[in-house]
């Protein structure tokens, strides 16, 4: 179990847009990270969540999961997004959450193995956006991790 | 030729995250919209542009192009993103731009026709991110426009 306050502080400090979007860490385990964000700083011309905010919070949740898991593995690394697909299933009219998980949890040991041997490895992470207990959007992202020289 | 100051003011007012990202309108014609954004408010833990910011500015450029073109057509409408694919080709280490264009300019008359008849229509828009004169990212987005009842 990760210290959620530490993770939130890390995100706000390292990625100031997460503070501007008022992103909070609602849950962070090895399996998933759930972030929350309110409507006001992320609103659009239709008084719903701006697609760019929805996408950015989904990316952040996915990135944070890899950050947390690699810390747990004791692997100092840098994680960069390579590509993503995002579906906006329905308008989000208020505070929403983004919950990330590995696209294929069984592929994790192989990912860690490759990262350790080759100093870089790719992994797929998904995030699901929820608004009023229903799925409102889905992100599928491909990330690459680089082992930091220590 | 659209009044760029008006468009910038509109974006900042309607989508406050665009102000937080310090997005500026660099060019806006019927063919394309170019937005710019600086590093500082969009920085990440690697001192490059946060993927969520890159994606959000690319979405905003695509959305703004449709906004401008539909205004020019005299069609009061609302434009919503349905899905997008984003490729992050290389790290962006400073101020960058996003330039949008229609994926298929020849499909525009059909789009306008459908929008007028059926009150809704879909269209594909692409955005290219540029940093130091090289392509740094590419977005391909699908949008749906709804004709506003007047």
How would you describe this structure to a colleague?
- Two copies of one chain form a homodimer.
- By secondary structure, chain A is α+β, with helices and mostly antiparallel strands.
- The first copy, chain A, has one domain (4-147): Hotdog Thioesterase (Thiol Ester Dehydrase, Chain A).
- Chain A has four helices and six strands.
- Chain A has helices at 4-14, 16-20, 51-72, 108-118, and strands at residues 24-28, 33-37, 77-88, 96-102, 120-131, 134-147.
- In chain A, strands 1-2-4-5-6-3 form a six-stranded antiparallel sheet.
- In chain A, a hairpin with a 2-residue loop joins strand 5 (120-131) and strand 6 (134-147).
- The longest helix of chain A is centred in the middle third of the chain and has 22 residues, at 51-72.
- Chain A is globular and about 50 Å long.
- In chain A, 43% of the residues are buried.
- Strand 3 of chain A pairs antiparallel with strand 3 (77-88) of chain B.
Characteristics of this structure?
homodimer, Thiol Ester Dehydrase, Chain A, 150 residues, 33% helix, alpha+beta, 4 helices, 37% strand, six-stranded antiparallel β-sheet
């Amino acid at each position: 179990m990760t210290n959620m306050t530490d993770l939130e502080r890390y995100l706000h400090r390292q990625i100031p847009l997460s503070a501007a979007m008022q992103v909070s860490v609602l849950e962070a385990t090895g399996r998933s990270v759930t972030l929350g964000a309110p409507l006001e700083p992320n609103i659009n011309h239709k008084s719903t969540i701006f697609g760019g905010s929805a996408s950015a919070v989904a990316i952040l949740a996915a990135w944070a999961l890899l950050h947390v898991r690699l810390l747990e593995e004791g692997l100092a690394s840098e994680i960069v997004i390579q590509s993503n697909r995002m579906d906006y299933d329905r308008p989000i009219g208020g505070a929403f959450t983004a919950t990330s998980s590995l696209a294929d949890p069984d592929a994790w040991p192989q990912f860690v193995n490759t990262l350790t041997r080759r100093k870089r490895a790719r992994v797929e992470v998904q995030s699901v956006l929820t608004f009023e207990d229903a799925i409102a959007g889905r992100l599928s992202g491909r990330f690459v991790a680089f082992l930091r020289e220590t």
